[in-house]
Specification:
This protein has 277 residues and is of the alpha+beta class. The chain has eleven helices and four strands; from the N terminus they run αααβαβααβαβαααα. Helix 3 crosses helix 6. The structure holds flavin mononucleotide.
Length: 277
């Protein structure tokens, strides 16, 4: 990531709502790199070099994959008109259209289905929710590997979950077969350094890590309250207005209406051929 902070400063930026965690291992170059992650939503028009996509895909395919099933596929999109249509189907996320490369990560059981049919094998396991979950998890792991590789090469990325707002429209646009679904998109390009965001704080570790068994303690509310204050400071500092974390989280999860069209995911997945038994 360009403009990377030294590891200790990155740790402090990640955890303003708790004592900075021990930095003993943060100097490791890969750990330091991970600590510097931030999503990028503004790109320059610098083109991507030849061979880059292939290297990024190799990094993605190097991720672990459940039972080595490799149940994901990738659609790369660079055609501006197609990108405009994808942006329109993704709650009009305009910045999506400015990225030189857009990836659609596909939970893909269709390849397994085709291979089974060609070999005369019935693969009833494909029709179970478990298989869809495997595909979803595999795609997410591969995607994050690609993010880490892209950032190491000076690129910026942003996941686009809004791509799930109209799954059938996305499927049609990308000619996806049954049993394949665009899980999320991803913008990739060289960051516009004038508009690079800061490292975004995360919840204190005490709110997310449980030792041995899960325990709900009063510390959870206290840690979240400190984080809420930290996010207010963050959003004010980066010019996003005075936005706390808790009200945004409540708003995002308030009800079907706040899921931006994604409340009908079961129906959409069934329309796309998934059994989900
Ligand atoms: C699965 C997933 C979907 C996301 N979808 C969107 C999106 O549709 N639009 C967007 O602007 N950011 C999206 N993001 C980015 C998150 O908002 C971002 O990761 C989060 O606010 C933390 O900020 P950071 O990545 O800069 O640390 C998504 C992230 C993930 C992991």
């Amino acid at each position: 990531m360009p403009d990377a902070l030294p590891p200790r400063a990155a740790l402090a930026a990640r955890y303003p709502a708790q004592d900075t965690p021990p930095a003993a291992f943060a100097d490791n170059p890969i750990v330091a790199h991970l600590l510097n992650h931030r999503s990028v939503r503004a790109f320059t028009d610098k083109p991507l070099p030849e061979g880059l996509i292939e290297t990024l895909v190799a990094a993605a395919q190097s991720a672990p994959t459940s039972s080595n099933l490799q149940t994901w596929s990738l659609v790369t999109v660079q055609d501006r008109e197609r990108l405009s249509r994808l942006a329109a189907a993704s709650n009009r996320q305009g910045f999506l259209n400015t990225a030189p490369l857009f990836l659609v990560w596909v939970a893909d059981l269709s390849r397994n289905q085709r291979l089974g049919e060609a070999a005369g094998q019935t693969l009833e396991g494909i029709d179970y929710l478990e298989s869809y979950m495997v595909a979803m998890i595999d795609a997410a792991l591969a995607a994050q590997n690609l993010v880490v590789a892209a950032e190491a090469l000076g690129l910026g990325t942003c996941y686009i979950g809004a791509l799930r707002s109209k799954p059938e429209v996305i499927s049609e646009e990308l000619n996806l077969p049954p049993n394949a679904m665009g899980l999320f998109g991803m913008c990739i390009g060289y960051p516009d350094m004038e508009r690079l965001s800061d490292i975004k704080p995360r919840l204190p570790q005490s709110a997310v890590v449980h030792r041995e068994t899960y325990k709900v303690t009063p510390e959870e509310a206290a840690a979240v309250a400190r984080y809420d204050d930290a996010m207010l400071d963050f959003s004010t500092r980066v010019g996003q207005g005075e936005v706390r974390w808790l009200p945004r989280m409540f708003q995002r999860l308030a009800g079907a209406g706040s899921l931006s069209g994604r409340h009908r995911m079961t129906e959409a997945l069934k329309n796309l051929g998934f059994g989900l038994k």
